[in-house]
Amino acid sequence: MDQKISLKIAGRMFNLTASTPEAEQLYREAAETINRRFAAYTRSHPGKNVSDLLSMIALNETVIRLELQQEIDQYKEEKELLARDLERYLQENR
């Protein structure tokens, strides 16, 4: 059942709907992560406006996600190679 939740991000309130308790937890963890990063960026980049800081956070988080996706893709390729090697080994040693 959908759950209405409110999250505070960078001092602004956002009303969202979470489809599961797990989704709600992910939303809350994401908001906490953004707020921690926002506080750190605010300290390290004084004078920047909220939009600039949130854009920098979005850029960095996207870079991290893309790096992780590249790792996942590499692991998938390695898994496929290992599966083919195993299959070939099993065929040759029957």
What count of helical segments does DSSP give?
A: 2
Structural class, by secondary structure, is alpha+beta
Helix content: over 70%
Shape, principal axes of CA atoms: elongated
Mean pLDDT, nearest integer?
Answer: 96
- Range of strand content: 5-15%
Low-confidence stretches: none
Placed side by side, the strands forming the largest sheet appear as 1-2
Query: For the CA atoms, what is the radius of gyration?
Result: 21 Å
Compressed to H and E, one letter per element, the order equals EEHH
Q: How many DSSP E strands?
A: 2
Note the main attributes of this structure.
94 residues, alpha+beta, two-stranded antiparallel sheet, 2 helices
Describe the structure.
By secondary structure, this protein is α+β, with helices and mostly antiparallel strands. The chain has 2 helices and 2 strands. The protein has a two-stranded antiparallel sheet with strand order 1-2. A hairpin with a 2-residue loop joins strand 1 and strand 2. Helix 1 packs across helix 2. The longest helix is centred in the C-terminal third of the chain and has 43 residues.
